[in-house]
């Protein structure tokens, strides 16, 4: 019982992840009632971003420039290269404030069943980058999932011939985590990879 | 660590109700990675809807036509007028399949503290409509909240002079509801307004 254009708007909002029919309806009515200007601005930035945002030629993160800000920066340590699954992971690591190297974004993990192999993840481009010997350490920061581990393993094997140091981020009990709330796989890993006091 | 345009897109998505920084980031990356075409269509319909969707001249619901589909229909009983708070309520009542009259959308409820009085809710327009005596019954279907009750009460008082029959939708135990899970106010109402078997 919504007008055709309102119904089309509700349907259009359902492209957003996690937005079902009820949420889309609530969003459409909210925007029409309360924030038409904000919605106009959203329409404008959506159109521009979908047109202009491409991948950084160097690290494959999203960027409207051919080189992203980090890759174009002269303040970063170009000997360290950290491999992540998603652009969101770059944000998380940058916010930790403990990494000053460059990144490489896979854009996912190996998933043969979905047709996602090394080529789709840009792994040939990554390997190519190791050839000029500028990178001395490759840090694998894919997710701590089965797929993330498999992807890290694949990259580790592929990069062996270049003599580059390859490392994996540490896994274990999160800071502030209480032991009784940590799952047993994580606890097993934390015990196996215990660090001896210096 | 997102490029300026991606950051602008994330910010733009936050105009949507219930979308915080994390959800906006997830939506932006999802659209860029997976569904640029859908996002372009969303941008297009957002822009058109914000520009073209206005209020139906007769019932005040959202419509890009001067008269909405229901008000323009010749199949509806023009003697029954149902007053609701929001266009979403029309959808809910239509889906119940038990009303064939016309609607009037207040677009909220009386809330003096927010500066929402009878004028903002179009109550003068509603009262005006009672003058030509076409409407024989006014059904008040505002929400079963304190504000919805107050708004219904105000409209009931304002329409007394026109001799129109005024009714309020029934409140009580919802169908399928178990008594022990129903709140005590609703139970009290259900007891007070018990219906005698014919």
Automatic annotation (TrEMBL), chains A, B:
<keyword id="KW-0862">Zinc</keyword>
<dbReference type="InterPro" id="IPR006171">
    <property type="entry name" value="TOPRIM_dom"/>
</dbReference>
<dbReference type="Pfam" id="PF21176">
    <property type="entry name" value="RecR_HhH"/>
</dbReference>
<dbReference type="InterPro" id="IPR034137">
    <property type="entry name" value="TOPRIM_RecR"/>
</dbReference>
<dbReference type="InterPro" id="IPR023627">
    <property type="entry name" value="Rcmb_RecR"/>
</dbReference>
<dbReference type="GO" id="GO:0008270">
    <property type="term" value="F:zinc ion binding"/>
</dbReference>
<comment type="similarity">
    <text>Belongs to the RecR family.</text>
</comment>
<feature type="zinc finger region" description="C4-type">
    <location>
        <begin position="56"/>
        <end position="71"/>
    </location>
</feature>
<comment type="function">
    <text>May play a role in DNA repair. It seems to be involved in an RecBC-independent recombinational process of DNA repair. It may act with RecF and RecO.</text>
</comment>
<dbReference type="GO" id="GO:0006281">
    <property type="term" value="P:DNA repair"/>
</dbReference>
<dbReference type="Pfam" id="PF21175">
    <property type="entry name" value="RecR_C"/>
</dbReference>
<dbReference type="InterPro" id="IPR000093">
    <property type="entry name" value="DNA_Rcmb_RecR"/>
</dbReference>
<dbReference type="GO" id="GO:0006310">
    <property type="term" value="P:DNA recombination"/>
</dbReference>
<keyword id="KW-0479">Metal-binding</keyword>
<keyword id="KW-0863">Zinc-finger</keyword>
<keyword id="KW-0233">DNA recombination</keyword>
<keyword id="KW-0227">DNA damage</keyword>
<dbReference type="GO" id="GO:0003677">
    <property type="term" value="F:DNA binding"/>
</dbReference>
<keyword id="KW-0234">DNA repair</keyword>
<dbReference type="InterPro" id="IPR015967">
    <property type="entry name" value="Rcmb_RecR_Znf"/>
</dbReference>
<dbReference type="Pfam" id="PF13662">
    <property type="entry name" value="Toprim_4"/>
</dbReference>
<dbReference type="Pfam" id="PF02132">
    <property type="entry name" value="RecR_ZnF"/>
</dbReference>
<feature type="domain" description="Toprim">
    <location>
        <begin position="79"/>
        <end position="174"/>
    </location>
</feature>
<protein>
    <recommendedName>
        <fullName>Recombination protein RecR</fullName>
    </recommendedName>
</protein>
């Amino acid at each position: 019982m919504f007008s055709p254009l309102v119904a089309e708007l509700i349907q259009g909002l359902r492209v957003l992840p996690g937005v079902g029919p009820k949420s889309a309806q609530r969003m459409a009515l909210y925007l029409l009632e309360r924030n038409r200007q904000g919605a106009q601005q959203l329409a404008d930035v959506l159109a521009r971003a979908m047109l202009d945002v491409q991948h950084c030629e160097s690290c494959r993160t999203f960027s409207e420039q051919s080189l992203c800000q980090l890759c174009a920066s002269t303040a970063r340590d170009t000997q360290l290269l950290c491999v992540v699954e998603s652009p969101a992971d770059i944000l998380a690591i940058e916010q930790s404030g403990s990494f000053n190297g460059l990144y490489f974004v896979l854009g996912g993990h190996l998933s043969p069943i979905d047709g996602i192999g090394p080529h789709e993840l840009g792994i040939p481009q990554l390997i190519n980058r190791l050839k000029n010997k500028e990178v001395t350490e490759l840090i694998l920061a894919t997710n701590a999932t089965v797929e993330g581990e498999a992807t890290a393993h694949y990259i580790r094997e592929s990069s062996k011939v270049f003599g580059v140091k390859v490392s994996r981020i540490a896994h274990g009990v999160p800071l502030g985590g209480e032991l009784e709330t940590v799952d047993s796989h994580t606890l097993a890993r934390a015990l196996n990879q215990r660090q001896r006091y210096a």
